[in-house]
Amino acid sequence: MFESVDFEEPWRKVHEWPMALTWLSASAMTLAVTATLPVPTKAGVAASLACLSLAAWRSIQAWGRSQARTRALDKTRKEFVTPQDLISKQKPGQFWLGKGFVWTDIEARKMHALIGKGVAETFGKEFIKDGAHWLHGLSREEDVYADLGLLEGHTLIVGSTGVGKTRLFDLLIAQAIVRQEPVIIIDPKGDHGLASNARKVCEALGQPERFVYFHPAHPEKSACIDPLRNWNRKTELASRIAALIPSETGADPFTAFGWKVLNDIVNGLIATGQRPNLVQLRRYIEGGPDDLLLKALRIHFKHHVQDWETRISSFVKQYKGNQLLAYISFYKQVVIHDAQSVDLDGLISTYEHNREHFQKMVASLIPILSMLTSDPLTDLLSPDFEAGHDKLVTDMARIIRADKVMYVGLDSLADATVGSAIGSILLADLTAVAGDRYNYGIDSIKPINVFVDEAAEVINNPTIQLLNKGRGAGFRMTIATQTFADFASRLGDENKARQVLANTNNKITLRVQDAETQKYIADGIPKIKARTMMIRYGHNVDSNIHDAYSASYQEQATEEEADLIPPAILSELPPLHFFARLSGGRTIKGRIPILV
């Protein structure tokens, strides 16, 4: 038994054009014969119209197939959009991903068929010089929209240098601004275009005051951000800075000791009525907590010990005027029994710790504080101005409450170490704000959009927590990187790198050269069945002249498992072209317009 199977070769020559021309010629000849020979006129006209109909039918088929080939040849041009264009494209509950189409098994089969036939053989060698732009011609493109709720699952953008990650950021950031949502952009490179486009969109909406700029290389234009301003529990501040200490596990003795020292200093500052900032923490960790401890003890005695100045005089004489030792002894021998303070206990233990051992244990902490308090960061990250100053002082909570658009350039190209530290502590501050919103309620239904370019340079444990649990606080994270190996290199642990990947439900891939990254993207997408046609000819002539000649012809359609998106094809994407795998299983092939 033979089963008849329809098989269409999508990239064969357009044979329908000669067929249409043949039928058109037949129609003309029929009319000519009817006019010159004794043929019934009605029959001749009817036959001519029938031929003309077949010619039209074949022309329509030929046109459709030719257009498919033309689409594949015409996708190298760039497209541009203005902020006004972007505003007009907004739809309620949706966001715009540029021009493209849904990538299904239909387009994938066409792709596999063309690869099998040979792209250069089909279109010519000149056709392949700009990358696989023919992929975008496998279907008719249109404006591509996706459900806004998908962004709640966070988004990962992967692509090599110069292929369009920043331009895609422009597109997504601009739409978040138009939706009147708070936007925070962390950009290690300090891309001028990214900052400029965000500012332009604010101005196009008539809201230039929404844009807030921060860049260490331009302190005169930068706002001041206090990354230690937002907290509910005092321990949060120590955790925020300790997260920056280099550590393989996050729980080694140096990190633990650094956290304890930070927490003791923070408690002392709060006990004395001072607001902790990075400059003060550096001062008391590098120089010792002597002055802070003395002030904290004096305030504690004043509030909890009656007639303490008279009672302590004997201790002062005993220690020959060394006020601090006298105060500590008075606290331990007298005050601790009736008015013990855990905060003072910790600060005293830090003061009494062997100084040489202390310096060794905080050897990783002091450089971090030095980075974050060196000029011009002294004022930018630890603002403490007199009344009447004209500098804009803000923090992440204020940015979010006022629906601001904050651009944070880290200047990592000039100083990667300091830039990474700035980005990490600001992300840790954002995590604290998310925890506050999660614990005490969200005062606004508007989501918070956080965009982190070159995320591997600033990602840390608090950022992973923000990806993991930030959705409940209304955070929508969009992070960009070049390869997945960047996260493993930064975090020092492949398992933590996989945590980052697992917490992003939407993955947008531009051109990627790294084989492991290509494989990760392709492996997360279901396979398809690609059909191929095999044709076999055979004949047999025996040496005996009296034997009959035999011949055979066979067509066989086979189906083989194939990738919806082959890993290697990701290295062939032209700049600004992408594949997007969205939460819920929808796959998009698109290209990014440039915001101007």
From TrEMBL:
InterPro entries: Conjugative_coupling_TraG/TraD, HerA_central, P-loop_NTPase, T4SS_component, TraG-D_C. Residues 143-214 form the Helicase HerA central domain. It holds the Pfam family TraG-D_C. Residues 447-574 form the TraD/TraG TraM recognition site domain. This is Conjugative transfer system coupling protein TraD. It comes from Thiobacter aerophilum.
